[in-house]
Description:
Elements: H1 3-34, H2 40-48, H3 53-63, E1 66-73, E2 78-84, E3 90-96
Antiparallel strand pairs: 1-2, 2-3
Amino acid sequence: MNSSLAGILQIVLLVAALAVCYKPLGDYMARVFLSPKHLRVEKGFYRVMGIDPDILQQRAEAAGAIILQAVADFPHGWRDVILEDPDGYIWAVGVPMKK
């Protein structure tokens, strides 16, 4: 099999996988965002929201965490900081910006 045929096959398989997954994943995302009830794991992620990113960045720097992206305001209405903890986990923590 030559490289161009392998590339085309890869693209076709990717498009097919996306075509199969978009409906179930879209339904799941809609259920998560629109439902008043969430799974326990999802609640854990949502608890991170509401922590002041400015204070978190100061504490993370003092604790030796790596700041991947300093606190910034985003056009979608959130103020976020992204950091990596000493165990290698990446966290994005933010709050809605005040209007």
